[in-house]
Amino acid sequence: MSSYKEPSIMSQKTTTVTLDKLVALCKRRGFIYQSAEIYGGINGVYDMGHLGVLLKQNIRHAWLHSLSSDHGEIILLEGSILGPRSVWEASGHVEHFNDPMVDCLECKHRFRADEINLEKPCPHCGNKNWTDIRQFNMMFQTQLGATADHASVAYLRPETAQAIFINFKNMISTNRVKIPFGIAQIGKAFRNEITPKQFLFRMREFEQMELEWFCKEENAQQDFDFWQEKRFAFYTSLGITEQKIRLRDHESHELAHYSTRCTDVEYQFPFGWKELEGIAHRGNFDLSQHSKHSGKDLSVFDDDTKESYTPHVIECSVGADRLLLTLLFDAYDEDIIEGEQRVVLRLHPRIAPIKAAFLPLSKKLTPPMHEIYKRIKQKESAIQFDEAGSIGKRYRRQDEIGTPLCFTYDFDSVNDHQVTVRNRDTTQQERIAIDQIEHYLTNTLGS
Ligand code: GAP
To answer: How far apart are CA 357 and CA 404, in angstroms?
Structure first.
């Protein structure tokens, strides 16, 4: 972990961030845009701008990094998004991946039946005239090729996990791995959510980061505990406020059709405690199902007992976009600096999309500062050069996007070969030698 020390100002964070404030910041600073906005937008689908892309890359990188341990090998897969109907029949998604849906017969508004009280009037129009509850399958269906028959039906994957299960034999035989080991995958998933909402929280197109950990049945509970602890530690290592994160075990009625034990990592969003990551004991449900439906044996041979068995699976699954939203909520703060309110994202430096900004105090000082910027950029690409506007305005811009450090070149720099470095969280400034910038940056970022 980085040597970054949280300044005391962070513990004084008292701002109650609202969804509206966060959405506005994301748009204003170019993190996230509504998809197809110029055509009126598409519900539950978002585009990532420059800073959003950088932030997400850092999240993916941190997630992958967090999986390594002495516990066993982790190998990587990038499966396809389209899957034939047979895959989703075997996985149970065709039959079970439903949400209960109800319509108001007066205003035609559609709701998830488990999210409203049907004893009460419609929250949209105030009438009480409901349809029966119907089950709605959330998979996006499409068709492969020109012939529309049962065999050509395909689905956009609603979870990345199945690509891991159907490639299990390929992966184990080509990577010379032994149980226990994990297959990790990052990729898009699609769900036709009845009511996409809360910005990136419930989207129709989103990205998942999933680990399927294959182990022997007798070790599954112990491995579940191991991963539960490790996943929780990941979130605190990203600087997420400890009081706002918790583990919650599922009641038996909440379990998905494939799982026998499940714990959610939950975060306290402004709209309540909600799932951030699901940790599930999937048993050997998936491998058994795919063995049965494909006719291919997905068991492994145990050299000790000289018997074949179907491994059990512990799954750790988190949405990259939901984690991004969580990190933004957790980092958002407002404080007063020199009588002026500022918005600041107190992101962990490892996650911050831009690590440092290089600011000449005056445009006359652009050439020497630009030379320094170009030199540092060769080693650390996530830095910005900004010469536009007053220095105060430029600091505020960087605070809003969570840049941990700003280096300023002023008229004294010409003679003393020093710059001022300003800390985002404390706003404290110090002078350091120009040839120390790289060292200072590395120290702060911990790389
Ligand atoms: N393979 C298991 C699985 O997909 P899930 O609980 O349905 O389990 C796992 O999803 C994670 O994916 C969730 O904890 C959440 O972080 C993310 N996720 C699920 N649905 C989402 C959606 N509609 N929008 C954004 N993220 C979502």
So the answer is: 9
Whole-number pLDDT of residue 13: 61
How far apart, in whole angstroms, are the C-alpha atoms of residue 317 and residue 122?
Answer: 34
CA distance 284 to 143: 30
Q: Where are the alpha helices (DSSP H) in 200-245?
A: 220-237
Q: Using a 6 Å cutoff on CB, does residue 203 contact ligand 1?
A: yes
Task: Select the more confidently predicted residue: 38 or 2.
Answer: 38
Which burial class, exposed, middle or buried, applies to 23 when counting CB atoms under 10 A from its CB (0-12, 13-18, 19+)? middle
Rounded to 5, what percent of the chain is helix, strand, coil? 35, 30, 35
Instruction: Answer yes or no: is the C-beta of 264 below 6 A from any ligand 1 atom.
Output: no
Peptide bond into 158 cis (omega under 30): no
290 lines ligand 1 (CB under 6 A): no
- Cα angle, residue 259 at apex, residues 165 and 263 outer, rounded to 5°: 110
341-394 tens-digit pLDDT: 999 999 999 999 999 999 999 999 999 999 999 999 999 999 999 999 999 999
Nearest to 421, CA basis, from 412, 432, 434, 435: 432
| SS3 category, 192 | coil
